[in-house]
Each structure stands twice: as structure tokens, then as C-alpha cells.
Amino acid sequence: MKPKAFDEIWGKSSGDVPRAAFASLARWMGNTPLHELERRQQSAEATFRQLGITFAVYGDDDAAERIIPFDIVPRVFTASEWSRLSAGLVQRVEAINAFLTDIYSDRKIIAEGLLPPDIVLTNPQFRPEIVGSAPPHNIWSHISGIDLVRTGPDDFWVLEDNARTPSGVSYMLENREAMLRLCPELFRQYKVRPVDSYGDMLLETLRSVAPIGAGSDPVCVILTPGRFNSAYYEHSFLADSLGIELVEAADLEVDDDFVWMRTISGRVRVDVIYRRVDDDYIDPLVFKPDSMLGVPGLIAAYRAGHVAIVNAPGTGIADDKAIYSYMPEIVKFYADAEPLLPIVETWRCREPQALKYVLDRLPELVVKLVDGSGGYGMLVGPTASKAEIEIFRAALIAEPHRYIAQPTLALSTVPTLTDNGISPRHVDFRPFVLTGTNGVKIVPGGLTRVALKEGSLVVNSSQGGGTKDSFVLADDGEAG
Amino acid sequence: MLSRTAASLYWMGRYVERAEFTARLVEATVRLDALSSSPAGEAAWASALMVIDSDTEFAATGEKLTPRNVARFLTLSTTHSGSVVSCLDKARDNAKAVRTALTREAWATINRAWLLFHGRTSPGDTQATLNLVNEAQAETRGFEGAIGRMMRNPSSWFIRLGATMERADNTARLLDVKYHILLPEGENVGGTVDRDQWTTILQTVSAVNAYRWLYRDGLKPWFVTELLILRRELPRSLAASAEEVVQHLNALGKQTGFQGEADRLARLRHARLGLTKVSTIVGDGLHEYLENFIDENAALSKAIARQFRFD
Predict the structure, then answer these.
(1) Given CB 3.0 to 4.6 Å as the disulfide criterion, which of A158, B12, B86, B249 pairs with B94?
(2) Do A302 and A369 sit in the same domain of this protein?
(3) Which chain A residues are Cβ-neighbours of B256 within 8 angstroms?
């Protein structure tokens, strides 16, 4: 028996009395004719297609360029909900950066016995190549995307941390543009905090971490794998918003441990690289030797302190799913306080007792590969077929260390425009946290992903999820 | 600016221009075909293939030379690198690679033109073909407008430089091919069919009204030649293109701080065109003149790539 999910507009009620803060939003949904909402939604999607705000799904030929479905009904946070969330996010990201500094130097946390050494040292995300060379200002994860789910008015859980190259911020900004254009009446009813300062905030963050010796006007670039990458639109969008060059590996060269880019008027020295290329591919001399996307010598230049890499190489150890279950201890250790944001209860299948527990309850659990992402390699017990469950059972028995398992949460829902009118669909949320020498900043908004299939809990765009705008109110709405 | 970006912008400018020229050529050929009695209609399509140097490529497909086959080959064939859709494909690919150097409007016009052709298999009947090439031209005009509203920075100059270099090449090819079809030996210059043929040339480079303004005379091959090569008032003439290339390179020189071989070659060509008379061109052989112009244009294109380090 599945508990009824908490709906962010209607609360737990049967759907005739909305939560106090959202009465006007409920009225707006009730009073705007469905065909009008559909028309606006189609107009938004047509704009996205024209602008080429597309997303590539690998291995899917006809979907070489798909737009992510956009939903017109926004998701709304009140000011007090947001400030509580922000405090938890800041605490968590600060802990992640402290953890990375420690892991790549003294490893106090291991010495204290809070973390088994093998889970770090044999982890493919741990990069021995950079031990002993801390990034400028000890900031590793400059741009963190923390995925949250919600089960009640004040119950937020961290589903996963993205400390490497979180994506999705362009959808946050484009969705807001679309909403301003299509539903201006909502912005008259609610004081929605703007998100368009993100570009300035990000540039400020990048400039703040430039290496010593970069001068007063550091050269920042965005490094993209190129136009065939699924997130290429976002890379170009960000370069455009920041007014900096979008470079590919072939545009860069390392000479005498400095990084240069090739321009029409000769070479220009580069100080900060916001890279959207994974560690593995970034430098063929250090990581994957056959990478065509990397810059030979980049890591040497980084170790010499001549260039800042954002996010720093090696951050993957902090958001690895095997580490995730230890995050409460990690946050407590570095923040010296109880974590404000809990994680979802997690069984580590590498531990025999946990494995037994999981195998006994496969139909009710979510099982994840520790090195999977994008919704791939996942079992959602309650909606899986018998055959799928048996495939996972065999895989778990064969390689238990590769899996973790979690209970199926009753994720919150938000009203969503569907073929049968407006009905509840499950959502998650990815806010973007920026860390520079100027402190930790969070843009008031984020990416809300919505599972468009009724009852589905999988929100990933690669699995057909959509997105919504996320309003953060300057006050508590009608409840305040 | 990255050298790779400069290359993409330059070639994007060239491919959009080429797509537009081919669309105009198809439009003019449809009209010519409608006006001529068969088999002159087929000859019109055969010469269109020659203008963009695709006659051998078409022959290789084994398809019969019918108006519909050639129209499809020129507009929608994905295997034909000179078709409108192939040019738009390459323009869009380059545009994608340099999204950051383009305004939203400029990108959106290329993308819309591409969406217009993408995935279509048949241009349809004559009317549908005309509609298709007209829509394509509307989008490329929109692109030109969007470029005109871009910041006056190196990005916009590279795009225009590409477009202008392509324009010079296209006009030279058009005149070269058509002139030889139009003046077969023993043909009486000034007959009615002839008029239609000459009008086709002018239509392809939007010069019908320009001709009337400048010459107030019946259609004369001599004047058409002068108009397309030497008259700067006509934006698509060789002289106007040569002048614009010098201006764009100048603007780039001012903003990037250096000039070189490309500037020298462009200025030389521009000066020479200013001193040339149509009587000399026709006297020395129009075909040789145009061939030589096309070769020089290609050499200048190589010099541009060398100068901005994208060769």
C-alpha cells in the first residue's frame, strides 16, 4: 500500500483546499482554460526548438536532437522554505570542499576511522595523480548541483550530490524566460526572486579562483567536448551569458606548464578553465591516453599552479554513490554540527547483512549502480517486472559492491499539465551552489525535473522526464 | 577570437550565401522552364546544374534529366553536397560550433531555414518548389538582417567576408555558364526566347530592376556583362563584392590589429576592377576572364585562412 504523496500545492488534502501560500496559483490553474495552458506550453516548446535548446540522447538515432518537455505549471518555494533549504545546502557544500581537501592531503577522516580506507583509495573516482596539489584557495567543487527530493512540507532529502560538472542551469534560465513571456500574470501575483544574476555570479566565482599571477583581469574559458555532446547547448549558452570563449581541446595548448589558446591574433594565456569535460578525458598524458577531448599537459600546468580548473580534478570522489551513504558522518565531521539536510536511508550492498536485507525486499526498494548516472542501471522495485527484478538479483549476488539500495520514497508531486488535464506528477529539484573566494552563493531557483508518466519516479531527461520553472518567493506568499 | 571560431564564421557565411544562390537559381530556372517550349525547358535545368558545377554529379546519380529530378537534386538531395539542404546543413553545423559568436536571431534564422528543408524528400509540384525556395530566401534574408544587427565585432566581419567571397564566386559562375548557352552560333540575338534567358540571369542575382534603371534599353548581352562585372551599384556584381571584401578586411584589420597578404590581394583586385572596361573583357574573351576571376577568388580565400591562422 503506497502512502499518498505530499502535493506541493494541495498538501495532503483531497485537492479542494490548497496550501495557504498557494491559493492564487490554485485559482490560476482553475481559471485558465486548459486549451490556453496547452497553447502556451506549445509556444514555449516551439521557441526552445527554434533556439536549438536541445538535448542529445546517446544511442537514440531519431532523438539526436530532442527538446526536453517543458511544463507550464511552476513549482513554488516560499521564502522561509528557501532559507531553511539554503542553510542546509551551504553546510553541505562547505563540507564537501573540506572533505576533498582532507582526502587529497592528510586524510584525517580516515585516520579517525569514520570512513573505510578502501572505499576511498580503491575508488575509480579517487585520483592519486593529484594528491598533494590542492587547487587555488582550496576550493574543489565551485559549482555543485545538489539533487533533492521532498516528502512533506519540511521534509527534504538529498538524493545525490553532483560535484563534478552538474548540468541543467541553462534550463533553469530558459524556463524562467519562457514563463515571463507566457504567464506574466503569475509574476504580478507573486514576488518571484529573479534568477538572471546567475551568469554574473558564475563569472565572479570563476574570476575569484584565478591563480596568483593571473593579474587583475584573468582570462576565463569554458571547455566543451564539442557540439556533439548532449549538453552542448548549455555550454554555449553559458559562454554567451558570461561573455567568455567556448573552447575545444584543439584550441588549447600547454607550453612550459602554461595554458594558451589559439586566436586570430596569436596566443592568449588562459587562467581559469570551467571545464565540461570529465576528468577521464581532460588530459591524455595523465588520464585516458586515447582521449581526443583533452589537452596534453593540462594537469601538469594545474599542478604547477598556473591554471585553475573548475571544478577541480578529483571531485568525483565526493559525489560517488559509494561515498553517499557516509555523507552524514562526513558533514558532521567537517561542519562540527548535525547535518541540516538528511540523506535517504541507504543499504550498502557490499556489507553482507545489508545485501541479505536488500535481496529479501527487492520489489519494494530502489537499487542503484554506484557508478551509474542519468537514471541508467537502476531498478525501481515497485514498478519493475518480475524478470527485471531477477536480473538485478543475479547482478547483486555476482557483484554486491557495485550496488546500493534505498527505500522507495513517496516523492512529492506538483500539478502538471497532462493529456487528461492537470494532475499530480512526481518531481525532484536541483539547486545550483557556487563557491568562490567570495563565499558560497545560491541562485534563488533551480531545476525542477518532473516525471511525466503517471506514478513514475524517474525524472531524468534521458528517460523522458520534463522540466518546470521553480519560483522562489521573496516572501511567504499569502501565508506570510 | 579563436582561430577555429573565425573559420566556422567565415564558412557559415559562405554556405548560407551558397544556399541562397542555389535557391534563387532554382526559382529562376522554374520560370525559364515555364516560359520555354520543351526541349528548351530541359536545357534550362541542364544549364542550372552547370552553373553550380554539379552536372557530372547529377549524371552520376543515373536519374533522368527532368525538371522535377533536377529541382529535387538542387534543393533536397542529401547526397549532393551543393544542394540547398546540404549547404544549410553545413551552415548550421558551423553555426552550432560557434553559437556564442552569434546572436539568437542569427542562429534562429539558420535553424529555421534548416528545419524548413530537413527531412523533406520531395519539393513537390512547381508551385510547391517555388514556395520552398521562396521561404528559404526569406530566411536567408532574415539571416542577413540579423547579421546587420549584430555587434560590429570580428564575428560579424568574418560572416560577411565569407558571404561576400561566395557571392563573387557565384556571380562569376552564373555569367560564365549562361553567356555561353545564350549566344550559340548563328542565333539571332534579341529574339523572344533569348529575352527570357537573359531575364533568368538577372533574376538570379536580383538585378531585373537595376538593369532597367541603369540602361533603359532592351536587354543587351554587353550591358548585362557590364552590370554583373563592373557596376558597383549592383550588390551582387563582381566589382561590388570585391569592394566589400576590402572593406570587411579593413574592419577586421582595425579591430584585430593586423593586416597581411589577404588585404594586399583584395586591394589589388579591387583597384584592377576599377580600371577595367567591358570592351576589354569581351575582346579578350569573357570565359577566360571569368575563369581567371574564379581562380583568383579561391587564392584570396586561402590567403584569408592563412592570415587568420585557420588554414
Answers:
(1) B12
(2) no
(3) 264-265
Distance from CA of B251 to the nearest CA of A (A): 14
- A298, A231: one domain: yes
| Closest-CA distance of chain B to residue A224, Å | 10
Q: Which residue of A has its CA nearest to B96?
A: A227
Asked if A221 and A293 sit in the same domain, the reply is yes
Measured between beta carbons, the chain A residues lying within 8 angstroms of B112 are 50
Number of domains within chain A: 2
**Per-residue model confidence as pLDDT tens digits over A294-342:** 999 999 999 999 999 999 999 999 998 889 999 999 999 999 999 999 9
**Structural domain includes residue A184:** no
Q: Measure the CA–CA gap between B242 and A187, rounded to whole angstroms.
A: 53
Would you say A454 and A423 are in contact if contact means Cβ atoms under 8 Å apart? yes
A295 lies in which domain range? Answer: 212-306
| CATH number of A380's domain | 3.30.1490.270
Instruction: Round to the nearest angstrom and report the end-to-end CA distance of chain A.
Output: 36
Write the pLDDT tens digit of every residue in B54-108.
999 999 999 999 999 999 999 999 999 999 999 999 999 999 888 888 988 899 9
A17 inside domain: no
Low-confidence stretches of chain B (pLDDT beneath 50): 189
Q: Flag if A239 and B100 touch (Cβ within 8 Å).
A: yes
Which set of grid coordinates corresponds to residue B289? 576572364
Calculate helix-pair angle for B126-148, B67-75, nearest 10 degrees: 20
Please tell me the pTM assigned to this model. 0.84
Please indicate, yes or no, if residue A288 is contained in any of the structural domains. yes
Furthest CA-CA distance within chain A: 69
Domain boundaries, chain B: 1-150, 152-310
Tell me if A220 is assigned to some domain: yes
Query: C-alpha distances in angstroms, A350 versus A29, A313, A369, A403, B269?
Result: 48, 27, 12, 7, 76
Nearest chain A residue to B256, by CA: A265
* Bridging pattern class, strands A272-275 and A439-442: unpaired
CATH code assigned at A218: 3.40.50.11290
Angle CA B100–A314–A272, to nearest 5: 35
Q: How far is A264 from chain B (nearest CA, A)?
A: 5
B310: nearest CA partner in chain A: A264
* Residues A294, A380 within the same domain: no
Whether A264 sits inside 8 A of B107 (CB atoms) is no
